[in-house]
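Title: Prediction job returns without error message
Component: structure pipeline
Severity: low
Priority: P3
Assignee: unassigned

Description:
Job completed but the reporter wants confirmation the result is attached to the right record. Sequence as submitted:
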Amino acid sequence: MSPKKMVYSFGGGKADGNGKMKDELGGKGANLAEMSLLGIPVPAGFTITTDVCTHYYDKGRRWPDGLKAQVEKSIKQMEKTMGKKFGDPKNPLLLSVRSGARVSMPGMMETVLNIGLCPATIPGLIKRSNDRFVWDAYRRLITMYSDVVMEKAAGIEPKDGHGIRHILEELLDARKAKVGAKLDTDLSAEDLKWLCDEYEKTIKKVLKKPFPHDPMEQLIGGINAVFQSWMGKRAVCYRRIEKLPDAMGTAVNVQAMVFGNM
């Protein structure tokens, strides 16, 4: 499978795929490619094909040869289009990872946002926005990643349904009560930074491993989590009801984050 094209880039008015390729790119990936070809300014990104998901399960949840190299090549293309670099301390590119099956399965599979935020990239993003925005974005990444990638995708079944997201939200509520904040938006940058530190300590204690600070490790974890969610309970039940085959797999869409709330 290695010589085969597994990753299709889009953005900057160009795309490797098109709107007719729903079987290979999923509905979302095919639409993103088509919109880019039409000149609609979609944030740059790439789609990993549905065949890769099938291979992932056929080969004991392993990536096909050559996939990482194709992903890295597509990231370089994204960096060029967006004028930012993934993992760069001064001008970091942040990524979203989303599923995209051939048939829409709303809310059935996982998403991870703000991938690429870490202690190395936080100062650079603060200089380009503000500290409160960045610490809130990092808090959201830690929450989502620990839940989706480190717990669910790892097959960890929390006791009494008291998962890591629930535990982190209790820390958030306790901090709000302590500083007299009614809403999340009432928390200061200092509060959010404190929460991020507490979240990381809690994750290491509860899940027995640290939240990853390497952007590429975060991205690989996010991609694997989308593949894993294809065979998650919600997605499998949905396909049974809708009479959809498991074998069709899901594509994975990786796209540059663009913030409307900066």
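Comment from assignee: result matches the submitted record. The longest strand covers residues 95-101.
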